[in-house]
Amino acid sequence: MNLATKLMLAFYNEQRVPAPSFLSDMFKMTPRSIHRSEKVTFDVMRHGEKMAPIVKSVDSGYVAISLDKAVNKEITPPVVKMKFPINLMDTQQRALGANPFAQTNELRHATQRFTSGMMELGTQVTRLMEYQAAQLFQTGKLSLDDEDGDEAFTLDFLPKPALYPTAATAWDDASVKWKDKKALINATAKEIRKASGTSPDALIFGEKAFINIINDADFREDLNARNLNIGSLTPRMSRDSGTFQGFIAIDNYNYEIWTYNGMYEDKNGVYQEYIHPSKVVVLSTNARREKTFGMIPKVVADDPRLSGFISGSVKLDGFAATTGAVIDQDNENIHGKLATRPLLIPVAIDTHGCIDTGIA
User: Fold this and answer.
1) Is it the case that residue 1 has pLDDT exceeding 60?
2) CB count, 10 Å around CB of 254?
């Protein structure tokens, strides 16, 4: 193999930028995650922390107790349907990295392009799931757009408003000290504890919010080992664009500190961060959160002439979709198709919150 061929192969095998799943991986697949029903019914659970009451004697009657409160919801999940064309004339051209003296294999090239196209569609669905997770962690609501940028799907899980506070004074104001920032984080953690019964154990900082605290002299002093070792910054890349920065104890809660540089391209072609730069997500990492996929049935079987292409239901770890291929009437174009109904469900909705620091 000569150098030119090696370079072409290296270019051909270069992987596309993977879609991050740092946030959406906190939602787990369960045996009921993949379904074929039109609507999804689920319960958003809320738990109290009442103590058992005392009765005056063994002769007293029983006290009636209400069990956990649940909000029952029935919704139609959002629908994703995408396709891409493969022009059979294009498959006669030599693919990158292929032997320039070998005879062109149109079927093999078409299959390769089909596989590459399906990977791209799957990657776009993964980005959509990450976008859902980012919205849920920062607002408790979903608002998804169609290809024209118009709102096509909305869903409000009705979280407690107290879990989404805005700083009274922006954190980048000179009058706001680290003790004030800690107090807001601690107040949000307490609201999560009261609403869900769980203790938050992670903070995910937007870029500006994190820069703000690490430039705060009082924050750095808190991390001084002489001050009871209440925290430390030991940055390391961990997974899917998420960076573990260290840990800190604030009053009764111990937190992992994370930052996240994952981005997506909006309808105008502008790159946006999944976590707003001025926000801080406060959450319990072990809460019940589910990842679901609705399968879209096919009316008729795929064209048997395309049996060599991926077709049918694809069910992988953390992903499920219906795929297929069709050929047009002129037998000149193959279209790859993917359809799915992806929805993230924060069953324990009150186990996370988000602080808007107000930083411009």
Assistant:
1) no
2) 15
